[in-house]
Amino acid sequence: MTFVWAFVIGGLMCALAQWVLDNSTLTPAHVLVLFIVLGALASGFGVYQKLVQFSGAGATVPLPGFGYTLVEGIDQAVKQKGVLGLFSGGFTAAASGIKAALIFGLAAALIFRPKA
């Protein structure tokens, strides 16, 4: 059942993002930032953690999950390092995902030819 809920929750988030793109004048960059900030705010208020526990990767993989990861990383780093954790926690928590995106993006660019 975990996989079903992950699919449903993740699909609803993606459908909501597509609906916002189709029915507003926001650019994809605006929607990207909006969803990351919404995920960070929901995480800050303790709402997103419940969604992650319920749907797993369905909540952590879409864009709001990145905001959640940043806030959770900052929270853990502040508990360990104090005020300096505000500056390093988000980067530490999101580093593996950012690194994977860069490596796979580079690999795709080297393997496939972009069209003009």
Radius of gyration: 16 Å
* Distance between the amino and carboxyl termini: 44 Å
Biggest sheet features: none
Mean pLDDT, nearest integer? 91
Instruction: Give me the secondary-structure category.
Output: mainly alpha
Count of discrete alpha- or pi-helical segments spanning 4 or more residues: 6
* Secondary-structure element order, N to C: HHHHHH
Count of DSSP E strands? 0
What's the number of structural domains? 1
Roughly how much helix do the residues carry, as a percent range? Answer: over 70%
Could you list the spans in which at least 5 consecutive residues all have pLDDT below 50?
none
Description:
This protein is mostly helical and 116 residues long. The protein has one domain. Helices cover 84% and strands 0% of the residues. The protein has six helices and no strands.
Protein topology:
Blueprint: H1 2-22, H2 28-44, H3 47-55, H4 57-60, H5 63-81, H6 85-111
Question: What attributes does this structure have?
Answer:
84% helix; mainly alpha; single chain; 116 residues
Concise account of the structure shown:
With 116 residues, this protein is mostly helical. The protein contains six helices and no strands. Helix 2 (28-44) packs across helix 5 and helix 5 (63-81) packs antiparallel against helix 6 (85-111).
